[in-house]
Amino acid sequence: MLRALALLVALALPARAEVYLTREQALALAFPGATARIERQTSFSEAERSAPGELPASFSWWRFEKDGALLGYACIDDVLGKSQPITFLLVTDTELRIRSVEILAYRETHGSEIRRADWRAQFAGKQPGDPLRVGRDVKNIAGATISCRNLTNAVRGHLELLKRAVAREPLAHAAPVEAAAHPALDSHKRCQLLMGTLLCVTLDAPNDAACEAVFAEVRRLEGLLSDWQPQSQLGLLNRAGTGETGPELEEVLGLGLEIARDTQGAFDPSVGALVQLWRKARASGVLPAAAELESARATLGWQAVELDRGAHRARLLHAGAALDLGGIGKGYALERAAAILRERGCKRALLDFGGQLLALDAPEGRAGWPVAVRDPRGGEKALFELELCEASLSTSADDELGFELGRKRISHILDPRSGSPVEGRLCAIVLAPQGARADAWSTALYVLGAEQGLPLAEKAGLAAAVLEGDGTLHQTPLLRAVLAKGKP
């Protein structure tokens, strides 16, 4: 979905993650005395992106103010370490001199020494254009060379991005809200980095204990459903090809197989080997060979996944097959989080998990939580707005998670039928009562497109839309009715 970690290729949950700061905690530390924090998003044209410098399609950043006076700027992003993303915060003063570099999350087994305060302090005072070279301007750390080099390069690159973005400040605008809560309703909000993205819980009254219970449950599910963690239930099943399924894995896998059937294989939980192959391509910068693609495709097939609910076991019939539940696990985690909030008496709440929303009861005095789905092409205008209540809204797109090899844009969403990334589509949106169903179906509709996918979604009773590459937005009759009404 949208707003996930930029360096994760495909539908995956992260492996080992040492999380030191959530995004909200890091931004609060950037300028403790700030009275205003304004999020910006700067877009770069295709011509700018094709010029030397490897500019992204868009760049998110913040400006901080105190009583109307500018304090400085900050950005949060990910850089690939050896094989896993490192989440970092870069903070500058008004002249774009570095104030601090913080590490929010580190996922490698080695190299975490880059979090040492004395090493990070070397960046202080550096400006755009200053040389930043490991071994010369920044000391290397034995055993952490790759992390040192890649983070240093990322800091240098993000300084340049901030310089370009700030230069456009008169033309800048607040980042379009992408299925996110209305700012006025965010006063009781807690966030934590989980499953490779940020989970934010917004309540109508503060309840830290309930939020911590939600975070603990999602962390537990991550330990069961992650294909990155070798000892997770999913990891053990993938390695052995057969094994026991706990109640959570059984429920998620069962629903995934049901949706695979209903979407004619456009959503397929057996896509794991293919995901791994394209992850490798992202890390190496080399497209998979035809023989590699054919080998990975031979392991696929949701029909070749046996789930015995009576014996609580699953078996993968194709040699080398692997399950990947990244396209449904986050939605399932949202459902579990919502159940915990209800158990603890928190009936009015909005959960935002990397851009996928699940709303409980509406805030007092409102019909729902006001949300907007942003247009992945950029601009201030949203694709549509509505008030969300007792439903989940999921969007699949690649404008933030896709990557480039050479000058070719590679989507992070794979078509299980062809084995290749999807091309020529901008986004797919699904509104459903359950988070897992919305999550999986939005992926499937991104793969299928409007012509093939929307009739299937309509048959499944889903409110859905597909924005094709030519800019045409197609909607199911149910979604048009929901938008006309203003809330699901």
Task: Give a topology summary.
Layout: E1 18-19, H1 23-30, E2 36-43, H2 46-50, E3 58-66, E4 69-80, E5 85-92, E6 98-106, H3 117-120, H4 145-167, E7 189-194, E8 197-203, H5 208-225, H6 233-240, E9 242-244, H7 247-262, H8 272-284, H9 290-297, E10 305-308, E11 313-316, H10 326-343, E12 349-353, E13 356-359, E14 369-374, E15 382-388, E16 391-397, E17 403-405, E18 408-410, E19 425-432, H11 435-459, E20 463-468, E21 473-475, H12 477-485
Antiparallel strand pairs: 1-6, 2-3, 3-4, 4-5, 5-6, 7-8, 8-12, 9-11, 10-11, 12-13, 13-16, 14-15, 16-19, 17-18, 19-20, 20-21
Helix pairs in contact: 5-10, 7-11, 10-11
Walkthrough of the structure:
The chain has 488 residues and is an alpha+beta fold. It has two domains: 18-171, no CATH class; 176-488, ApbE-like domains (T-fold, Roll), CATH 3.10.520. It contains twelve helices and 21 strands. The strands form five sheets. Strands 7-8-12-13-16-19-20-21 form an eight-stranded antiparallel β-sheet, sandwiched between helices. Strand 4 and strand 5 form a beta hairpin. Helix 5 runs antiparallel to helix 10 (326-343). The longest helix has 25 residues, at 435-459. The radius of gyration is 22 Å and the shape is globular. It starts with 17 loop residues before the first strand and ends with a helix.
